[in-house]
Amino acid sequence: MDWADLSERHLRSFWMAVTVGSVRGAADRLDVEPSVVSRHIQRLQLQLGVRLLERRGRGVKPTEAAALLLEFCETRKAQEEQLLVRLGDMGKTLRGRVHIVGGEGFIPDLMTWALCEFGRQHPGVDITLEQAGVRDLVAMVAQDKAHVGIAYCIEPSPPVEAVVSRRKPVCMIVAPNHPLARAKQPVSLQDAARYPIAQMAAGFGLQQAVSRAAAAAKVVIADRLVTNSLTSLREFAALGLGVSFMSAQSAAADVAAGRLVVLPTTSRVLNGMRVHVLIRSGRFQSRAVREVIGFLARKSAMWEVAV
């Protein structure tokens, strides 16, 4: 059998069913009837002479043979993308697609930099900007689902690497009438732990940073609020409910409005936190992606906090 005989539509239905875990889910994504997806997969199985999917409850599970076919699909997809990238790079006008993923606190800057400044200079480049927690963000970059990631409070590890890193300490934020707001010196975690604490949920860099800092200081932090929203952290503190943690930049607008006070901490862990511009090591990058990476690396100097 010639691999060229494999139908692109059949492969797409198979890939989507494996990706979402069900035939119905694949049909919804592809905007076709479930029977169409099932028929495509059945034809692939007949053509290849192997079973590809097993039913598990309401979903499907890929077989060992399916794992090989999935690898083939992803390799071919990557090769096709690389071909289009190389062809696009031959032109004088910068063109292409760049997918950026960042944490909530960086979206406003990324909107201004990538969509406004860079976008006006290079209208032929399409930017996709997505928000995610640090765990999902790193996975997206590692799995080539995003070209560039902006991550806070992590230590990059292969296959992900930092193009540039900027020091950006994690601070405490409280309402102006909170007892800690009168502190003249950096505040310890021991002092903060006497008050209700609001934190980001597990999977976010801020939560991981505060947990590491608390362990290093041998402090037990009892969370009053756990959230996946920086807005909720700011409101918790602004309403006088307790102490939240984030960078000074993330609270700057509320500080300017007189709703919050930013307090530096005595924690070496929190003071050493950094923001990284991430890519996957070894991935071929188009000229458009390289230009965006360089642009963000230069602009990220604005996030740097002097030692």
UniProtKB/TrEMBL annotation:
TM spans (from-to): none
Record keywords, A-Z: DNA-binding, Transcription, Transcription regulation
Record function comment: NodD regulates the expression of the nodABCFE genes which encode other nodulation proteins. NodD is also a negative regulator of its own expression. Binds flavonoids as inducers.
Protein's name in the database: HTH lysR-type domain-containing protein
Organism field: Bradyrhizobium nitroreducens
Keyword Transcription attributed: yes
GO molecular function, one term: transcription cis-regulatory region binding
Residue ranges annotated for the HTH lysR-type domain, each copy included: 6-63
Protein family (similarity comment): Belongs to the LysR transcriptional regulatory family.
Record Pfam families: HTH_1, LysR_substrate
